Amino acid sequence: MPKVVSIHSYRGGTGKSNFTANLAAALAMQGNRVGVVDTDVPSPGIHNIFSLEPDAMTETLNSYLWGEAPIEEAAYDVSANAGLSGDGKVLLVPSSVKADDIARILKEGYDVKLLNDGFRSLVKNLQLDYLFIDTHPGLSKETFLSIAISHVLILLLRPDKQDYQGTAVAVDVARQLRVRKMLLAINKVHSRLNFEALKQKIEETYDAPVAGIFPLSEDVVQLASEGVFCMKFPEHPVSQEFQRLAQQIQDTD
């Protein structure tokens, strides 16, 4: 059965899009067909990680939301860009990076129900095993929808007081929406911190499992979003953590 996986953080700057791209690629490496939708329409960016140039994005999520094209026409096969070979695929639905389009979506908004219809259409017509939703930080109607329809919600946070407080709000909202499976992932963790102690603290604080702890890495920073890290450096500790998390997602009922 296909699974919808939402990646969310209460605050910006957590590395959410990089996280989403790498986890999606890690699942595709295992032979899965993975869709990724960039619903961060005010500040899209995940297309950069998949080396999809704006000039090639003739249709986008915006096109679908405005009734200009079926959502499948906005799904681009970025598997080769990511370095994937074999049966696994990543199909990306980007949001428009054009200033006029961003201004229009912010001014006019859109029918949130269309997102749900679009997600269902992608899963069915593209025969996806997984659909990843890269959300906009914070809480909104779009976020509530993504959380509510998810089989798995991954809340990404940094070991930072502001993130701790924001994540508490996001966890409470997820529970009110009765999310089926909620996992926490801690990103950009300094090497001097005790990872096991941090994991225990986070799990006790939110009463939710920590599925992955990702170290602060200069290697990731150096790549500067020009490619999918776990594909370029599969033996790196960060990549191995993504592989472990991907296996947990596959094992989720």
From TrEMBL:
Among the Pfam families in the record, one is ParA
Looking at the keywords, is ATP-binding present?
yes
Q: Which UniProt keywords apply?
A: ATP-binding, Nucleotide-binding
Is this entry keyworded Nucleotide-binding?
yes
GO molecular-function term, one example from the UniProt record: ATP binding
**Protein name from the UniProt record:** MinD/ParA family protein
Q: Which organism is it from?
A: Thermoleptolyngbya sichuanensis A183
